[in-house]
Amino acid sequence: MTEGLPMAVPAQGLPPRVRIHEVGARDGLQNEQAVVPTEVKAEFIHRLAHAGLTTIEATSFVRPEWVPQLADAERLFPMLADLGGAPDIELPVLVPNGRGLDRAIALGARRIAVFGSATESFAKANLNRTVDESLAMFEPVVARAREDRMWVRGYLSMCFGDPWEGPVPIHQVVRVAKALRDMGCDELSLGDTIGVATPGHVQTLLAELNEEGVPTDALAVHFHDTYGQALANTLAALQHGVTTVDASAGGLGGCPYAKSATGNLATEDLVWMLDGLGIETGVDLGRLVTTSGWLAERLGRPSPSRTVRALSHKE
Predict the structure, then answer these.
(1) Can you tell me the distance from the alpha carbon of 114 to that of 222, in angstroms, rounded to the nearest whole number?
(2) What CA–CA distance (Å, rounded) separates 192 from 248?
């Protein structure tokens, strides 16, 4: 570590604390070519928790043939029982449909997420349904989860651009976001799935959502760093009042159904910026860097995170 850096210099108009929604173990590892052993995944999640991350998306209850890298959900989730019982650790899981919800409930999951799309092309590629058909599929899933007093997140992908359709009209994103919110999602994660967003676009979308009745405290942001804009877009969201940011340890991930999507915003890069702004996260950057370096060794390649590379440099 570089002693004393970054120096904390707060900026006006930013939240005092940010909750990081860590997606590396699910969104990151699902994009790996090789299947990562279950024991490595379990240790990765435990290391993330020990680094201070309190929301760690653990896995996805999709059909194994869809995402083979996450086919071990039934084996992995019980290996996290010690974390799931901790009052300050949350382990949300992705569920695509009613069957996925059944599997999650059977293992004691209490926080779930559904994964929608703002565009027809991606809905077809990812779910083999239209946008409205996918919403109709999610509605009974969310209703059942809410009846069971589960917390529900709604992912909304392709909020800023789509590899098949190009720019995505803001009103189109707002319509689907409102539908997810109205069916009972506690939180909406706005995804820049191919990394084309810029700060003005981010703030305009957030303002439009507010005008249509979606409060800022129900919103999270999920940026990919394809064009190097993820941190700038995150800062724009923080300036608007967003306090939940998705990130992936080591910058792992992409999207198996959107080939132009590169890695997620690296958690370490996010924490470096937030530490420098004096914004609390509860995350120990040194432990997190060590964790991502440990995983990179097991994946057989360097971490994409600039902060991991900088702090892991040996003279």
Answers:
(1) 14
(2) 14
Closest C-alpha among 56, 76, 72 to residue 64: 72
42: three-class secondary structure by DSSP:
helix
Q: How far apart are CA 202 and CA 281, in angstroms?
A: 22
Structural contact between residues 84 and 117, judged by C-beta atoms closer than 8 angstroms: no
Answer whether 238's CB lies under 8 Å from 12's CB: no
Question: Using one digit for the tens of pLDDT, what is the confidence trace for 257-297?
Answer: 455 446 899 999 999 999 999 999 999 999 999 999 999 99
Q: Could you give the strand order of the β-sheet that contains 111-117, starting from the edge strand earlier in sequence?
A: 55-56, 19-22, 244-247, 219-223, 187-192, 151-157, 111-117, 93-94, 59-60
Distance of alpha carbon 212 from alpha carbon 313, whole angstroms: 47
Q: Which amino acid is at 249?
A: A
Q: Which residues, listed in sequence order, are joined to residue 156 by a DSSP beta bridge? A: 116, 190
Q: Which residues are catalytic?
A: 255
Distances (CA, A) of 167 to 34, 64, 131, 163: 33, 32, 17, 9
- In terms of Cα–Cα distance, which of 105, 103, 132, 104 is closest to 116? 132
Q: Which residues of the chain have pLDDT under 50?
A: 256-257, 260-261, 314-315
Global pTM?
Answer: 0.95
pLDDT for 54-74, tens place per residue? 999 999 999 888 888 999 999
Using alpha carbons only, give the angle 249, 180, 194 rounded to the nearest 5 degrees: 40
